[in-house]
Amino acid sequence: MQQKGIITIAVVAILIIAGSCALFLTKDGPNDNSPTTGVDAAGYPIEPVKNLDDGIVAIGQDSFRWVTYFGLADKCVMIDWNDSHNYLGKSFMYVGRAVVDIEGSNTATPADMKYYTHTNCGITDDDVRTILELDPSIVVVPKSFYTDYRNQMKTIDDQGINTVAIDYIYTFLEPDTFKMTEQLEKQIDVLSLALDKEERGKELKKAFTDSVSDVREFAKNVKTERTAYVGSLAYNGAHGIESSLTYYMPMELANVTNIVGGTPDWVDSGVRTFSATEIAKNIKEDTILFVDASGYHTNTDNTSKGLLKIFQGHDAYTLAPYIWTGVNFDTIFIDALQILRFAYGDDVITESEFEETVKKVYERFYGTSESNRNIDNPNKKPVELPAEGTTILEDMSAVYEAIRGVSIGAEITINDDGSLTVKTQ
Q1: What sign does the CA torsion over 66, 69, 70, 73 have?
Q2: Any idea where the domains of the chain sit in the sequence?
């Protein structure tokens, strides 16, 4: 171990001296003689993990999200900085508790912070030092790390640390059929093999198909489709009402017509800015305004207010966060259920059916529908810890209300000046 430590220090020193301008190749290619089967999202052979006694490092966009879906959050000895505090954007953070989070809780010290990355969805030389010191059972990273951080990844690979690369997935269900895309199936297969969790992989595939079935079972009762616009969709950081998608999965699932709808954008998140003209020309008398709760608070400038005036007098509601540094896959089904409830009411889905089905979605993805939040000052504002039995959606709504001034699923009003207020019961 002492010799390995000396080698580690030397390797990292060489990395720092080399700087980012040096170009290295990483990992052996798929034709090497290592005992592996299958390839990951970056095209490298997968080495199934023998055990997780030394923990998981899950860094970069989506890594901790997927590890949490696989029920292994508590095996994570290092996670991304962006997954250490961001209760406003990510549903999985209400369940996933990494080792540093469990031990640190509200009293995490600067020493604990080394087990979060030093940057948002990236990897620094200091992070490499920590990873080599931890010598984890496996490291989960996005495939882009092999091009964006090739020096750092070469250092990790050269030390013989097992790594697996995952994909960025946005439109994960095929239009019209709502079957899982090939990309989504591969993602689950890659992680099932790498983490030696093939049974859980099958369960996750069923989580997607069963959740689709539940939503579509309610949606088949829709007699006349309503129209809607969803704004304030956030990919990475909050955005105003002009931020939306041509293909908003929850509306498609819920049989609601998107007034700015079009071909799915398969490149990156698909989130784009829409003009007042694009929005206004397709608005109908029955059009509902949906506002992603992650960006509700940003709609205070003249551009946002001008757009919102178009919807004055229309039904309007907030929805759970769809996308924030990756897609909240489970929340898309929750959003679809919310849209069915707001658009069609008891004729399609009753309040009790809504609550029961929401719990089922969470149980499939996490094994529980209850929030496990243990930080009572997320985003540096006090929010009472959830009582036993509080669902993820209820707790997320409480966090949003405390920090952003609006709950999830709130009915809202567009005022004469284009500002938004929450309707009181």
Answers
A1: positive
A2: 2-168, 223-422
- Distance (Å, whole) CA 112 – CA 137: 20
Query: What distance in Å separates the CA atoms of residue 67 and residue 160, rounded to the nearest whole number?
Result: 21
pLDDT at 416: 95
What whole-number distance in Å separates Cα of residue 130 and Cα of residue 420? 46
CATH class of segment(s) 223-422: alpha beta
What pLDDT was estimated at residue 349? Answer: 98
How many angstroms separate the Cα of 78 from the Cα of each of 5, 59, 201, 212, 336? 19, 7, 23, 33, 33
Q: Determine which helix (DSSP H) or strand (DSSP E) holds 163, and give its type and residue range.
A: strand 163-166
Confidence class of residue 30 from pLDDT cuts 50, 70 and 90?
A: very low
Cβ–Cβ contacts within 10 Å for residue 256, how many? 27
Residue ranges of alpha helices (H) inside 224-328 are 249-253, 276-280, 302-309
Write the CB contacts of 271 (distance below 8 Å, at least 6 apart in sequence). 233, 234, 235, 239, 243, 244, 245, 323
Count Cβ atoms below 10 Å from residue 30 Cβ, excluding itself. Answer: 13
| CATH of 2-168 given 3.30.70.980, 3.40.50.1980, 1.10.287.130, 3.40.50.2000 | 3.40.50.1980
Give the residue from 271, 320, 269, 333 showing the smallest Cα distance to 90.
Answer: 320
Confirm if 318 and 407 have CB atoms less than 8 A apart: yes
pLDDT-wise least confident of 66-75, 95-104, 179-188, 192-201: 95-104
